Amino acid sequence: MAGLYIHIPFCSSRCIYCGFYSTTGLALREAYTQAVCKEIEMRKTSTPISTIYIGGGTPSQLSIDHLKKILDTAYIYNKVEPDAEVTIEMNPDDVKAETVTGLQQLPINRISMGAQTFNNERLKFLCRRHTASQVRQAVETLRQAGERNISIDLMYGFPHQTINEWESDIEQALELGVEHISTYCLMYEEGTPLYRLLEQGKVSEIDEELERQMYYMLLGKLETAGYEHYEISNFARPGYRSRHNSSYWQGIPYIGIGAAAHSYDIQTRSWNVANIHKYIEGIEQGKRVFEMETLDENTQYNDTITVALRTSDGLDIDTLPDGQREFCLNNAKRHLDAGLLKLIDKKLSLTKEGLFVSDMIMSDLMIV
Fold it and tell me: Model pTM greater than 0.90?
């Protein structure tokens, strides 16, 4: 099995925190759609496709006709499984009844929306286009249309945010009754407007202890509400894990289509040029403009550590070669003794106490 990721870089405006490749050059949508379809044809595979994820950017900036062309091409040139999970990311303000009706003519069966927060002032701070009420209206519109697999993103750790304000966001998210919730602490990535505000001293990161309290409050409230905490940042109702993202964490190969999209086939990792003009020009000439790295044994091991330990399923140590297994267990010992890791039925995984310091633990288990 394999996953297919299709990157749609268009945004009508950029959020201040986003480090993903995007463009506001909406006039290129038709040319980009044609290029994406051609790349799908160029890179067709006989390996069954079990998940398709249309991400961005803002995929809902494409028309239904554009999306239909892309998905038709994906199904024509690949063996897509009948029960494939097909996800599209949408902005809440793009969820209109007529748009949803159009989506229902496509094989899309999962909707992912970036709610981020239910505080309108913070939404403005992030330069999000939608309001809190539009998130609620979007979920209602999707439900009325019969959509039964909805995911939302939530963000915490805003400058000056209090624990009570975060609790309010969690509770409002739970009131929506969606099947999946992804959560992220606000990150200050180099090159983003948010990072420049940090450098200029106009904003400041929250205290680490407050971030810890927010994270553990999140765990408690979502688990009490019946969500399975199956990955560090992801929670799902039973049976509604993101199959596409889970394939990343399980080390399953995936094909990335579009500008800046990444691909992985166990032996290599590659990424398309992060420039829409160069991407389109290359594809029109019948060549993919990309870079590639070959993954040696140590890199493959490190990748396994960083993805498997993110999940509640953990790492099956018997899947590691003898030398790597011994290295892993030796380095894990102090974290096992400290109660940050647990080893049950040969599955190594993070404890609740280890989740918040997962980066440090993973780093200790890697081969430098």
Answer: yes
